[in-house]
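Weekly modeling sync, notes
Attendees: S.R. (lead), two postdocs, one rotation student

Agenda item 3: backlog of single-chain predictions. S.R. asked that every request posted to the team notebook include the full sequence so nobody has to chase files. The rotation student volunteered to paste the first one in as an example of the format we agreed on. Action items at the bottom.

Example entry:
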Amino acid sequence: MIVGCIIAASTLEGGKETAKKVMAAIAAHREEFEFERHAGGPNMDVTPNQIIERLESYSGLTR
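Predicted structure, as returned to the notebook:
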């Protein structure tokens, strides 16, 4: 899903630079987007919409 958000950001105004903003936001808040062994940890209780909201907030983008 995170990769999909990066790709979607690349289709917005600014293209590649917009996608880079999203990647920078993810890197700066990495622990908030990671799962333990891809199937566990605190992020298992987070919905996809909540993850998207985090990305929007941290990168300054909106839907």
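Discussion: group reviewed the output briefly. The chain has a mean pLDDT of 91.
Action items: rotation student to repeat for the remaining queue; S.R. to check formatting next week.
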